[in-house]
């Protein structure tokens, strides 16, 4: 009987060890995604956009992968595609009009409002100005409200 008890203890320890390995593998993937994301650490908070925008355009990516601009009937707006949970880069899905975070699965609607997942608040909106030559200058250090337009 003691031999059977030892085998059971050994089996339980192996099972526990496998559980630790499986749990580690599950937590490492989001960590690696976070660490290897194409984060464009800004040298400057200013990002230029000089392509034409049309009214009711879809979100357009700027020279900085995380900064996006869009125009609706009220004007031009810009957001930073950084997840409000832990800062991963979120990806725009034009076919579903959603923003998805690959790290923990947060989903934001077209306007950047969180609809599911752990993200606590909307994607940050930032200020946009039009320069004399007609191009846009996005100031990522200046947060604005969801309704703010240029
Ligand atoms: S970083 Fe956790 S859901 Fe985006």
Describe the structure.
- The chain has 2 domains: 36 residues; 99 residues, Rieske Iron-sulfur Protein, CATH 2.102.10.
- The chain has a 6-stranded antiparallel beta sheet with strand order 1-10-9-4-3-2, with no helix packed on it.
- Helix content is 23%, strand content 29%.
- The protein has 1 helix and 10 strands.
- It is elongated.
- FE2/S2 (inorganic) cluster (FES) binds next to loops.
Features:
Rieske Iron-sulfur Protein, four-stranded antiparallel β-sheet, six-stranded antiparallel β-sheet, binds FE2/S2 (inorganic) cluster, alpha+beta, 150 residues, 2 domains
Q: Kindly report the name of the CATH homologous superfamily of the largest domain.
A: Rieske [2Fe-2S] iron-sulphur domain
Q: What is the CATH topology of the largest domain?
A: Rieske Iron-sulfur Protein
Q: Please, how many domains?
A: 2
User: What is the overall silhouette?
Assistant: elongated
Note the gap between the termini: 79 Å
Strand order of the largest sheet: 1-10-9-4-3-2
Strand pairing plus helix content: what structural class? Answer: alpha+beta
In sequence order, what are the helices and strands, one letter per element? HEEEEEEEEEE
Range of helix content: 10-25%
């Amino acid at each position: 009987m003691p031999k059977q008890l030892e085998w059971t203890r050994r089996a339980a320890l192996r099972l526990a060890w496998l559980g630790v390995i499986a749990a580690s593998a599950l937590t490492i993937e989001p960590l690696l995604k976070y660490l290897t994301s194409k984060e464009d650490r800004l040298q400057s908070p200013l990002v230029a956009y000089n392509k034409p925008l049309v009214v009711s355009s879809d979100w357009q990516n700027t020279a900085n992968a995380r900064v996006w601009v869009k125009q609706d009937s009220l004007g031009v707006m810009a957001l930073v595609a950084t997840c409000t949970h832990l800062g991963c880069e979120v990806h725009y899905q034009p076919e579903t009009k959603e923003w998805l975070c690959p790290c923990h699965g947060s989903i934001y609607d077209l306007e950047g409002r969180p609809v599911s997942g752990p993200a606590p608040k909307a994607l940050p909106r930032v200020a946009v100005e039009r320069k004399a030559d007609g191009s846009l200058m996005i100031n990522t250090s200046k947060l604005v409200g969801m309704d703010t337009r240029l």
